[in-house]
Structures are given as C-alpha cells and as structure tokens.
Amino acid sequence: MENWPAKVLSLGLAIILFVFHRMNSLETRSFLAPITIENLNAMMPSSPYPRMIRVNLKGEGKSLYSFLEDDIEPYVDMEEFSVPGAYKVPIKWRKKGTAQDVEPLQITVDPMEITFSLDYKISKFVSLIANFEGQVESGYNMTSYSFNPNQVIIEGPVSLLGGISELQTESIDLSGRRSDFSVTASVLRPSSLIVIRGEGTTEFSGAISQLIPVRNITNVPIIITGIQEGFTAELEIKNGSIHLEGENRAAIEGFVPAPDFLRVDCSGISEPGIYILRVIAGNVMGISLRTEPQEVKIQIDSIGD
C-alpha cells in the first residue's frame, strides 16, 4: 500500500493508454443505409427528408467485414408524435443478423438527427389522364381511348393530396400508329411522398381509324342552261359550294370545277314566273360530292315585259 495514490494513478493512466492504443489500432468502415421510419400511426412525412444515412463503423479488421451492410439498420421512432408539425428526431440504430455478435464494434450515424414535417395521412380516388408523345400516321386519327382501371387510390399527407384530382400516365407513344393498340402504362407519382396502391399501372387502349379526306369549295358559279327563246332568267342565289370527300386525297386536292359544273336546267319552263329548280352538279370519278344549295329560286320573265 506504499505510495498507493501514485500506483492508482499509474494504473489509471496505463488503462487509458491501453484503450487509446486499442482504439487507434481499430479499422474503419463506412456505407450508406436506408433509414426506416417506425410507428407513424395516422401520420406521415409531408416534406422531403434524407432517405439514406451514412453509417460509420470502427472495429477489428477481420470482424469489421464479416457481416452484411443490411444488418446495421438506422431508424427513427415516431410514436410520440400525433399532431401535424415539424419535429427534430434522433436517429437510432440496431444490429441484426450477422452483425449481432460482432465485437468490438463502434457504430455512429451521420447525421445524428433529422427534422421531419408530419401531417395526417389520407387516401382518395383520382382519375387518370394520358400523356401522349408523337403523332399517328398521316391520314389517320385516334378517335377514342380508355383506361382499365380508369382510377387509382393514392395515399399521402393531406397537405399534398388536397390539390390532386388526377394523375398522368408515363408517355404513350403514338408515332406511326395506324391501327387499334393496347399498352400497359405506369402511373406517374407527382411526389415521392405519395403512394399509389396496387401495381401503379393501367391498361391503355386506343382506337385509330383512317381519315376520309374532305374539301369544301365555295363561290362556285351556278349557270343557267336551257332557257327558251324569248325569255330571261334571274337566279336568287348565283353561287354555291361543293363538299368533296373520298379516299383519293390527291384527286380531291387537285379537283378544279369547270365553269358550268353547277347549273340549273330551264328547258322545261315555257311560261314566265317564279320557279324552284334543282341545282345539278357534274360528275367526278371516285369522289363523293354534295352541293349547297341543292335548290334555287329563279325568276323567269318574257323579253320586253
């Protein structure tokens, strides 16, 4: 017991030096691990937060790499929070699986705490809208389309879901299509904080039909023919229009009506008066046509009256 204070002090210093040396001789290992949020209950995060946490390990070289990274699990416990707000929460960690019996092992996480904004969790039905890119083949048109299902259920914080009534699909390419088609399309999430129940996909079906070329020609003169000698004629409407349609686009676009293409025939009129006559149109091969007007009023007078 002689000089025991000095001996105790020396022993304490020896232990400190031993521990310090041991600590300095340990190796380090770092990796990123996903953070788990536990006990949210009726709440959920309402703003972005770090999804990955850096885990720093210190231990003996051989044992430091003897376990899987997944067996160190960072987590936060939200059980004490039950009203919306912003909270600073410490990050905890646990060892599991192959890491449970590894010693010595020092574990630290970076950052050591995270600020979470929490809000009440709700769910709702929303409709789907298509997100198109490209154009169908020239001369064709997508006449209709449908989804199956045409609605999905989404979950998220009330502050985000309140303004969402529909979701878009991923891009659906129409380029060069000329017949009906179906594709499976993913539904896009407007935020990583929003969850889509189910598979998050829909079956899109589009109906495509060939366009029938049409053309309208206006201000086409209506010619009077067959007027008998000794009479004059005056049309109430002197110009008409021609509506063309058919599969031959080149013929429709290149058609030029002759000067007498629209006419009224007065050959059957032998007395003065007011008559309603049919407008007669010429024929065009392979093109369906309609005239407007189909009938006109004509005034027939005797010369000299």
Description:
By secondary structure, the protein is mainly beta. The protein folds into 3 domains: 4-111, Beta Complex (RNA Polymerase Alpha Subunit, Chain A, domain 2), CATH 2.170.120.30; 121-210, RNA Polymerase Alpha Subunit, Chain A, domain 2 (Beta Complex), CATH 2.170.120; 214-302, RNA Polymerase Alpha Subunit, Chain A, domain 2 (Beta Complex). Helices cover 12% and strands 51% of the residues. It has 4 helices and 23 strands. The chain has helices at 4-25, 61-64, 158-161, 249-254, and strands at 27-34, 36-38, 43-45, 52-59, 72-77, 85-90, 92-95, 105-110, 113-133, 140-148, 151-157, 166-173, 181-186, 195-196, 201-210, 214-225, 231-235, 239-245, 262-265, 273-278, 280-281, 288-292, 295-302. Strands 3, 6, 9, 11, 12 and 14 form a 6-stranded mixed β-sheet that branches. The protein is rod-shaped and about 160 Å long. The mean pLDDT is 88.
